[in-house]
Write a structure and sequence with these properties.
4-stranded antiparallel beta sheet; mainly beta
Length: 112
């Protein structure tokens, strides 16, 4: 049974930073792709960041230069470092592994 558990969300002022964590169990994150999506109220879930098994990263244009995805294979955890946060980054953030397994989400709220 693969489980992904996100943490690290919260309320932050515009310009602030947060680091989201996604702890995996039942499967190793060193194999396959891992990533983050987000869903704002009234909107569809959208792609945010991806880290391939070979280390290639890809980002939503609006977060490039502000967000960084990484993983710690020893801790079996994926991270999303979010800097220079904007109110439009407010959403529930979900991590996934291979687009097959998803976490329950963590709320990020950025106040103006």
């Amino acid at each position: 049974q693969v489980q992904l558990v996100e943490s690290g969300g919260g309320l932050v002022q515009a310009g602030g930073s947060l680091r989201l964590s996604c702890a995996a169990s039942g499967s190793t994150i060193s194999i396959g792709a891992v990533g983050w999506h987000r869903q704002a109220p009234g909107k569809q879930r959208e792609f945010v960041a991806l880290l391939s098994s070979t280390g290639i990263t890809n980002y939503l244009d609006s977060v490039k230069g502000r967000f960084t995805i990484s993983r710690d294979n020893e801790k079996n955890t994926v991270y999303l470092q979010m800097n220079s946060l904007k109110p439009e980054d407010t959403a529930v953030y979900y991590c996934h592994k291979d687009w097959q397994y998803w976490g329950q989400g963590t709320q990020v709220t950025v106040s103006s």
